[in-house]
Amino acid sequence: MVDPVAEARAVLPGWVGWLGPALHLLVGVVAVALLSRLARAIAFRPAPADAHWTERARRGQALRSIGVFTLWVIPISFATTAPLVTGPMTLVPEALTVLLTAVACFAVGLRDHLAMMASYRPFPPRPAAWLGGAVVVVLVFMPILPLFVGLIWTAPTSPWTPTAALWATMAVALWVVAIRGHGIEAARVMRLARPAGPRLRAIVAEASREVGRPPPPTFELAWWIANAAAFPFGHRLVFTDGALDHLDDDELLAVCRHELAHLAEPRAVLALRALVSFALLPLAAIIGNAVQLGTPVLLVALASFLVLVIVSRRVQRRMEERADDHAHEGDVEVYARALARLYEINGAPAVLRGRPIHPHLYDRLVAAGATPSYPRPDPPPRARTLVAILLIAILGVLASALVPILLPSALPRMKDPTQAATLAIAFNSEPAWHLAMLAHTRWEAGSLDAAAALYEAALEIGGPREVGEAERSALVFLYARQGQCDRAQAHFDWLKKEGAPELLPGTEMMMKTCVPR
User: Fold this and answer.
1) In the structure, what pLDDT confidence band is assigned to residue 515 with cuts at 50, 70 and 90?
2) Is 286 in the same domain as 158?
3) What is the C-alpha to C-alpha distance for residues 306 and 290, in angstroms, rounded to an integer?
4) pTM for the structure as a whole
């Protein structure tokens, strides 16, 4: 069977099939690299070489914000617009175009992000370690996030169906797995988590003896961030390689006391934690059906969830202060040293703006009775960072629209309409309409076979502009002149049944003159 699109591709220049996706990818890579540098030039002021680590971390917060934005937001923007440059005439499949664009932009963003980390972190990770850490974050610390996104896309439209019941059952089951910390098992399969080694087991056992409880299951995570965490619902502890590599045994013991306090949180606090994460399930269903439910329902749901989050953050902050108090029962100086070391290794500011869940490091040290020798640092500068992010957001959106929208809109201004139509097809801008234009040009130039192939492809593709009657009439003339009477007859029959009456006399006369070859 003849493929009209394949025949049209053979007529057009070879670059038409890949120019759009390739140029979009190239623009994305260049945009990520240039916008990253532009934002850094606007927002970042390097600290003096002899500056205290708190000053480097304070100034580096701008790079942290910019890096996250250029690493995720701009690549996602280009991946989102990538389908616009793929179409029937494109040789690169849409899914592959999206994947290659996202990966290429992300790779450039990651390179710049890691380079910027060296300005405020004493031990910036290598790319492979960073990627492994990102997987750990998703599987262990934020499994609710991919679950939430997946539930939005799969939310059933009616709540009273077997499908909805199955969806709810699976959602609740996955939620239980997530909040109990069973993402650790998935990380173990990927060799990103392992049971605690002898050193960590001994430290956890000692801390557990101090509070009179059996040691909880403890795991080590292949994550370069220096951190430790507790999973109260699964009664588990995790320590990262970053913490194990840079803290001594006494410091790890002090951190362990803090985490064990989280495992003994009051039931009311655990209920609130569970409620906030569980509320994401109905919220996902509402967002997934926002069109049917209407804006008022969506706004009420979002406002209710926001209230829950605000209350939860205040309670979580109190739990952090409570856990710090438990850690103070040991050697206060050691715990203060451990906290300061964690912040320094991670390049985290000693003081942030607002009231985060974890109190500011400086305030935690003062509360522990270990007031630092340096004055209380100022929060990280914000104005320049916001200006930089806003600017690269606008420029990033414009850049992601360059190939699929902005360039095609400028093509009509080209002096050569044939070249403009060819480029429009390469950019997937109304390809059927422009194929018909090229077909008419080829017909006038005497290339009847090429004109017929382009007209057939235009009919096959279709589009928002009318492509049909005139093109079929042209094909009757072309095929009749070439002696392809069967093909001419097929289009003539369509015109008699569906087409405009004014086209029939001329096409009928051509059919009478058609001589098969």
Assistant:
1) confident
2) yes
3) 17
4) 0.86
